[in-house]
Amino acid sequence: MLLITNADEFPQTVAGKRIPEEEAQAQQWIETVIGERFPPGVRYEDALRNGIILCKLMNKLAPGSIQKINVSGGDYKMMDNISQFQRACTRYGVPDVDLFQSTDLWDYKNIALVTQTIFALGRCTYKHPEYRGPHLGPRPAEENRRDFSEDQLRASEGIIGLQAGTNRGATQSGQSFGATRKILLGK
């Protein structure tokens, strides 16, 4: 169990879950999709914090999904950008379990979850044929339903697959339970 005795230790424990390679992939994908680079010298989480880049990303994936991006104003306006991004992600098809909370990004509580949301959004692009840009992450599995006739199901009942082990039956060869052992000392 993890015990945090000092509030200053908390960001380091959460930072331990972060994977820099995934953050770099997410950043590169975002930059490619929106057609602009993150501000130089600004950390990944700081560039995303005000929600402007995230809103631009959503508008590239689903044009018009975010009507107004707040580029100036106080903290409330920037938090509104993050909320708009989350709502647009839901409409785009990102599952609720993959969405980060606004405070995860705004208060730097869980940047790894922010990256997970970006990857989930990247996977959703496969399901939108109108999107022609690059994808992020593996293609989601599609349903591949199989229908078997009663004869096929009955025929399979007599087959012992190799997943069940060998079909030669159990033997006692190699067992030495109860046999005496010779222990030779001094040789």
From TrEMBL:
InterPro entries named in the record: Calponin-like, Calponin_repeat, CH_dom, CH_dom_sf, SM22_calponin
Domain Calponin-homology (CH): start-end pairs: 20-125
GO cellular component: actin cytoskeleton
GO biological process: actin filament organization
SMART domains: CH
Any GO MF annotation of the entry: actin filament binding
Family membership noted in the UniProt record: Belongs to the calponin family.
Name this polypeptide is given: Transgelin
Species name: Hermetia illucens (Black soldier fly)
